[in-house]
Amino acid sequence: MRTFRRALAVAAGALSIGLAATACSPGNPDSQAGGGSGSADRITIGTTADVLNYNPLVGNSRTDTWVTNLMYPRMMSMGMDGVRSPYLASKWEYTDGGRKAKFTLRDDFTWSDGEKVTADDVAFTIDAVAKEKIGVVAGLISSYQKSTVISPTEIEFQLSQPDGTFLENVGFWMPVVPEHVFSKVGSVQKFANDKDWVSAGPYKLTTVERGQRYVLERMENFPLIEGGPKTKEVVFRVFPDVNTEALALRNGDVDLIANALPPPLAKTLEGDSKLKLVKVPSLGWAHMQYNTAREPLDKLEVRQALAAAVDYEAIRRVALQGKAVSSNSSVLTPTLKQWQDPSAKEYAHDPAKAKSLLTGAGFKDGNGDGLFDGLSLRMIYDQADPNISKWAQLVRDSSKAAGIEIKLEGLERNTYVEKYTARDYDIYAGSWAIMENPPANLALAFKCKGFINYANACDPELDALIDQARGQLDQAGQKGPIQQAARMITDKVYDNVLYVEEFTIAHSAEWSNFLVQPSELLSIVNPVSVAQATKG
């Protein structure tokens, strides 16, 4: 669930010049298998990173997910509005007042070694996640107690309390792994799963050449595509950055770029008739979180002043070049229309109000330099993220006009992750990739000691509203308390939501029939999309 950052792009002018120039893509060890397909037998996809984890329960990078999603099924898929749809599971329901939950599985999924995919695989997977506390999924299933396999296609879960988020959390976030393989390895969390892959998806990984390519071959018996996947082979090629990917796409060396294009680069490709640009809405949001466990950010007036100091429209217009929309400063975003609160309004950019709030809270300009004493704050961000690197400067400048000094600290990705995980910052600038289930997501991000509560928010009233929503078994019952919770997050500035991005994914115009899903992580590089894509 953590954000997946895009490669650093150079300035728009340099992009235009670079793409117009004649250039070659990186060396290809096997032009037949690694370059553009030249036929419908192969689709070649560009990425900017190697696979780090082949274990789908552990992997957390975009490339990890794109590759393993093609092999390990999930119970549910997702529509453009975030609403779940069947995948491995054909139906699901709560019973016993929400203390029990049940999945019914399709009976036509088969692992590539001939074993059937059954409820035993689901039971093994969820027990491993719960026992070893593997990843975000473990945080999403806190109510899980045990599972009972009723039949090869039926599984029932016992919950510690009614939890209306459980089925959707398990259904969408938990990839199912083969029990007959993973049960033999000891610790599932430590299992590398880096060879002899067994797949129940549309493709199976067969060849790995780190830094170069990952080759997956078609599984003829994939039941969600009539007649099996349309393309025999999927090749992920690794490039040093998104600009090199774009050159390879224009040269015909790749058919699709998996990662979203930075807005300046997207604009340079808009007029190319050989390409198609697909618009994909984000399921998350870009934001700033203020560390409420630190002075002076523990003061509501300071957080409100920081919110008033930001020029939100300028960020969307300049840094995102219009490829983003307002979320009205709400964690209930426009993508999830079924959850939106019509009363939500964006924080107004009002430097005078910010100064008034700070003066009322006792802050003074003792040096006469236009800056309030005691308000020099450090903001960390991933320096490789081109969008955030731009808007961080805009935030710094507009905050200075409100009398607040913000010192920017652009960090290398791993250092950045370490800092925000340890809550070692004043202000954290970043983005969520997928926040598609508000009752579950708000529990993780805003409840006291929540798994990803990086703002250190701890508000018993907010916790009670989130718990009330989670205890309801349908959206109708969840919507009221979750909208109240969202309003409280806005009012108390536990999160400053800046925008919801509109991603641009580029592919060769020779390819069609992709299935678009929301978020950069799913986009058109989701299993059904890749499996049903056709050339010509």
Automatic annotation (TrEMBL):
InterPro entries linked to this entry: Peptide/Ni-bd (IPR030678), SBP_5 (IPR039424), SBP_5_dom (IPR000914)
UniProt cross-references to Gene3D superfamilies, sorted A to Z: Dipeptide-binding Protein, Domain 1 (3.90.76.10), Dipeptide-binding Protein, Domain 3 (3.10.105.10), Periplasmic binding protein-like II (3.40.190.10)
Membrane keyword on record: no
Major site of localization recorded for this protein: other
All copies of domain Solute-binding protein family, residue ranges: 86-446
Keyword annotations of the record: Signal, Transport
Extent of the signal sequence: 1-23
Keyword Ribosomal protein found: no
PROSITE patterns, per the entry: PROKAR_LIPOPROTEIN
Subcellular location per the Swiss-Prot or TrEMBL entry: Cell envelope
A Pfam family this chain is assigned to: SBP_bac_5
Source superkingdom: Bacteria
Similarity section: Belongs to the bacterial solute-binding protein 5 family.
The protein's name in its UniProt record: Peptide ABC transporter substrate-binding protein
